[in-house]
Request: fold
Amino acid sequence: MFNLSAPVASSQQLPHKNLPRKLSLYMGTNYRNSIPKYARDEFKRFTRVLDNNNTKIILDSGCGTGESSIHLAKINPHCLVVAVDKSAKRMRRCNTDTADSGNVMYVRCDLIHFWRLLQRAQFRLYKHYLLYPNPWPKPGHLQRRWHAHPVFPAVIDLGGELVMRTNWSVYAQEFAFALRSYIKTPVTVTELKIENAISAFEKKYSGSGHILYQVKANLPHD
Ligand SMILES: C[S@@+](CC[C@H](N)C(=O)[O-])C[C@H]1O[C@@H](n2cnc3c(N)ncnc32)[C@H](O)[C@@H]1O
Reply:
């Protein structure tokens, strides 16, 4: 069971007025963060698995306790699901005790580093899930939302079918706006009707009666 959760509360009711400026600042740029050794080591471990596993990659970014990763692995048996989260505590609660199993591989890493490493190595994803990212609802936290972060161009470069779900309509609107600014292909925003929740937060939010939104786009491969 879970405790009922309150909908996102924010003084921001509309897409942030500074978002277009942030996007034009980062468009076409590479975020040059310094990547720590632990992240490079995790990436090496990931590429070693791939050497023996020449399959399509589904990235579950911010997988939390990993229910969605297991679900995605079951319905995509021909793919490798790479489940990434920075929280060791959340990942320890994965059903599989974080041991890589079947077609799921768990990676404990900050996404800011992992996305950059994938981008640098010119990986192209088959699908990319960003389920219920932290909303950072304070207007002053705009840059912490993924679509307004300088690493977002790396997410675009990774390609594939990108799916983002959130319980905050403003986040969905901003995310879709950011995608449309970066790519020419269609971006859809839909309200979800959840029958079988695929992640822990989806279960919690749908069980609490929140409206859930999905933003989806096929990112172009160059
Ligand atoms: C609200 S939870 C959603 C978890 C899961 N996707 C779900 O739907 O149940 C957000 C997750 O993103 C992870 N996260 C936030 N920022 C991250 C970052 N920079 N790198 C990796 N994981 C991050 C958190 O640790 C947390 O597990």
In short: Helices lie at 19-26, 37-51, 67-75, 88-92, 111-120, 152-157, 169-182, 200-207.
